[in-house]
């Protein structure tokens, strides 16, 4: 127990050191590696890190757990090897750098220059090979991958310990913090998947915007041009019925209970609700709105844009604000 006590004390000191250490960030346009000497561990002195504004891409094998259950371990080993090599070589060809391989998920980061074109074209290459080559060479597997791309500022921090010897590389790594990594990962989570969504269809009488007001608002009552022709300023709700869709969270947050035994709802007079579900199909490549716009700016004459192969997704993605554009794009090399 004495050894364990000392180890706990050592770890406590390490955590206190990290909390007290100052961080400084160097702006870069290149993709750092774990051997970058300008990145430091800290350990009692200022911890040096980097900032990079660029595109980050994640690629992931779909249904890998189900595939592992169905197929031989040797087959899955070959599949993982093939997929990783495709991502590594595609990244290199399009100027990107693989900076993480976790099981069946690969992270690729691009230098700032031309990052939109490089990232999107890398995504197309990976999708092409997965769709046209890997799937055909691994018979009976129905192989698919999902790809997500986002753009923004990444903070790169070296973590681990400065251990020497054979284990040196295994005891250090880079952490990529910031929204682009999180959003690209979220997009990858649903890319090339069919998701089931539960939602609520709520019927209500909308709130009357003139209620409780006289004077000027009351004078607007007879104006059909302003959409107030049927409104009375002495009625709290409009006579018309509107139907709105709500997520389970939105529906739960909108419920009120003004009178015992009766359901109320915000922004209107509650009439009825119906719980429903639907399937959402996402294409293999998903781009954030920022990436799509950046790609259009850098490569406005690209065939995928001219032929409108990229479509705005009608379904939202968790934690992703703004529009998402998707496509199942491959290279026309025949």
Automatic annotation (TrEMBL):
Q: Which residues form the Guanylate cyclase domain?
A: 55-188
Q: Which GO terms describe its biological process?
A: cyclic nucleotide biosynthetic process; intracellular signal transduction
InterPro entries in UniProt: A/G_cyclase (IPR001054), Adenylyl/Guanylyl_Cyclase_3/4 (IPR050697), Nucleotide_cyclase (IPR029787)
* Pfam families found in the cross-reference section: Guanylate_cyc
Organism expressing this protein natively? Flagellimonas olearia
MF terms from GO for this chain are: adenylate cyclase activity
Which protein is depicted?
Answer: Guanylate cyclase domain-containing protein
Transmembrane residue ranges: none
């Amino acid at each position: 127990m004495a050894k364990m006590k000392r180890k706990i004390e050592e770890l406590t000191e390490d955590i206190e050191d990290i909390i007290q250490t100052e961080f400084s960030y160097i702006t870069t346009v290149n993709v750092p590696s774990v051997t970058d000497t300008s990145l430091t561990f800290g350990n009692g002195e200022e911890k040096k890190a980097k900032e990079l504004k660029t595109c980050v891409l994640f690629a992931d094998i779909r249904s890998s757990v189900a595939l592992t259950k169905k197929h031989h371990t040797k087959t899955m080993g070959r599949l993982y090897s093939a997929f990783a090599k495709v991502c590594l070589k595609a990244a290199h060809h399009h100027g990107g750098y693989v900076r993480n391989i976790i099981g069946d998920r690969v992270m690729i980061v691009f230098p700032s220059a031309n990052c939109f074109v490089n990232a999107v074209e890398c995504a197309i290459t990976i999708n092409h090979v997965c769709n046209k080559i890997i799937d055909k060479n691994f018979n009976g597997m129905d192989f698919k991958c999902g790809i997500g791309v986002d753009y923004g500022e990444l903070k790169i921090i070296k973590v681990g310990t400065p251990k020497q010897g054979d284990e040196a590389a295994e005891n250090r790594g880079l952490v990529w913090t910031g929204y682009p990594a999180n959003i690209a990962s979220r997009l990858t989570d649903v890319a090339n998947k069919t998701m089931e969504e539960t939602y609520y269809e709520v019927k209500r009488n909308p709130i009357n915007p003139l209620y409780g007001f006289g004077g000027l608002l009351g004078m607007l009552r007879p104006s059909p041009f302003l959409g107030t022709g049927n409104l009375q300023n002495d009625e709290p709700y409009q006579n018309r019925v509107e139907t709105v869709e709500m997520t389970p969270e939105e529906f739960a947050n909108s419920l009120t209970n003004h009178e015992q035994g009766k359901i109320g709802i915000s922004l209107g007079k509650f009439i009825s609700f119906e719980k429903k579900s639907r399937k959402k199909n996402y294409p293999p490549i998903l781009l954030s709105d920022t990436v799509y716009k950046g790609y259009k700016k850098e490569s406005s004459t690209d065939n995928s844009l001219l032929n409108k192969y990229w479509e705005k997704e009608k379904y939202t993605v968790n934690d992703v604000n703004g529009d998402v554009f998707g496509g199942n794009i491959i290279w026309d090399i025949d």
